[in-house]
Q: What sequence folds into this?
C-alpha cells in the first residue's frame, strides 16, 4: 500500500475514533444497552427483510439503465451483483469499492468500459436526486426543522440546483442546456469536466422515458429506506412522527456519504443523535438506533461476501 494511501486511511480511523469518543462521552451507555436489549425482535426482523426488497428495486433500476444502453441483463445477476457490491463497501474503507464492483460486473455483460462507468454514475445520480427531493419536501413542510436548522433549507436548495445544472449539461436539448454547455466550454477549468460528464452520461439523452422510470424506482427505493429506519425506531420504542423520518434519513445518508471516516463510523452516530434530538428523541435512543443500523450494514456485508464466494458468473 502506498504511504499516502496508508496516511489517508489512518486519518479516517482517527476521525472515526474521535467522533465516537465525542458523541459517547456524555451519553448514558447503560440506557443505550437497555434500549437495545428491549428492542422488538420481530420488528427488527421486518426491518432487515426490507433490505432484500431494496435489492430488487435497485436491480430493477440498474436493468432499466442498462437497457437504455442496449444491454440485456438478468435480474438475478444484478441482484447478486448489488449484494456483492455491499460486501466490498464493507471490506474497503470507502463506498467506491462497491461502485467499482458494479462497474466490473456491467463490463462483463458486454459493456464498453466507459458505458459501464456511466451506468453506475447515473444510478448514483438518480438515487441522490430522489433523496434530495424527499428531504427538500420534508424541510419545506416542517417549520420546526427550519427554525432549529435555519441554514439547512438554503443548503438543500443549493445542492438540488447543482444537480439540476448537471442534468441540464447532460440532457438539456433546449436553449438553456445548450447555452449552459457553451458557456462552460469557454472556461478552461469547467470545459474538461463538462466534456467528461457529457461524454460519460450523454448516452442516456435519447432514452428519457427509461430515465423517468429509473427515477420513479429511485423514489420507491428511498421510500423503502425511510420506512426501514422508521420500523427500527418503532422496534426501539422511539416516539417520533413518520414525516420526521423524511428529514432525518435523507440528510443522514447524504452526510454519511462524505468520505471522512471508515464506513461512516462516528459520522453515523453524530448525525443520528443530532437530527433525532431536533424532534425530541433522547440521545441514548438515537445512539442505539445508529448502532443497530451499523450492525445491519455489517450483516449485509457478510451476506454479500457469501454471495461473492458462491455465485457463478455468466
A:
Amino acid at each position: 500500500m502506498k504511504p499516502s494511501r496508508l496516511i489517508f486511511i489512518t486519518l479516517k480511523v482517527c476521525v472515526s475514533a474521535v467522533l465516537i469518543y465525542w458523541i459517547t462521552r456524555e451519553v448514558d451507555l447503560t440506557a443505550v444497552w437497555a434500549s437495545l436489549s428491549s428492542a422488538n425482535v420481530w420488528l427488527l426482523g421486518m426491518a432487515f427483510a426490507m433490505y432484500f426488497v431494496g435489492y430488487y428495486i435497485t436491480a430493477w433500476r440498474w436493468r432499466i439503465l442498462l437497457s437504455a444502453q442496449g444491454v440485456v441483463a438478468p435480474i438475478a445477476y444484478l441482484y447478486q451483483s448489488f449484494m456483492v457490491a455491499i460486501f466490498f463497501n464493507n471490506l474497503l474503507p470507502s463506498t467506491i469499492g462497491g461502485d467499482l464492483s458494479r462497474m466490473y460486473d456491467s463490463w462483463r455483460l458486454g459493456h464498453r468500459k466507459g458505458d459501464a462507468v456511466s451506468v453506475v454514475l447515473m444510478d448514483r445520480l438518480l438515487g441522490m436526486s430522489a433523496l434530495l427531493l424527499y428531504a427538500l419536501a420534508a424541510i419545506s413542510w416542517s417549520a420546526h426543522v427550519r427554525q432549529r436548522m435555519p441554514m439547512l433549507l438554503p443548503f438543500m436548495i443549493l445542492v438540488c440546483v447543482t444537480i439540476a445544472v448537471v442534468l441540464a449539461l447532460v440532457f438539456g436539448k433546449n436553449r438553456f442546456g445548450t447555452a449552459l454547455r457553451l458557456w462552460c466550454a469557454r472556461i478552461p477549468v469547467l470545459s474538461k469536466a463538462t466534456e467528461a460528464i457529457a461524454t460519460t452520461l450523454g448516452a442516456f439523452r435519447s432514452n428519457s422515458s427509461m430515465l423517468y422510470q429509473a427515477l420513479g424506482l429511485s423514489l420507491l427505493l428511498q421510500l423503502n429506506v425511510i420506512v426501514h429506519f422508521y420500523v427500527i425506531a418503532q422496534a426501539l420504542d422511539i416516539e417520533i412522527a413518520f414525516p420526521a423520518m423524511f428529514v432525518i434519513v435523507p440528510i443522514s445518508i447524504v452526510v454519511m456519504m462524505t468520505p471522512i471516516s471508515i464506513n461512516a463510523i462516528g459520522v453515523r452516530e453524530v448525525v443520528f443523535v443530532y437530527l433525532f434530538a431536533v424532534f425530541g428523541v433522547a440521545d441514548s435512543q438515537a445512539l442505539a438506533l445508529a448502532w443497530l443500523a451499523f450492525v445491519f450494514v455489517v450483516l449485509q456485508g457478510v451476506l454479500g461476501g457469501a454471495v461473492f464466494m458462491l455465485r457463478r458468473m455468466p
In short: The radius of gyration is 20 Å.
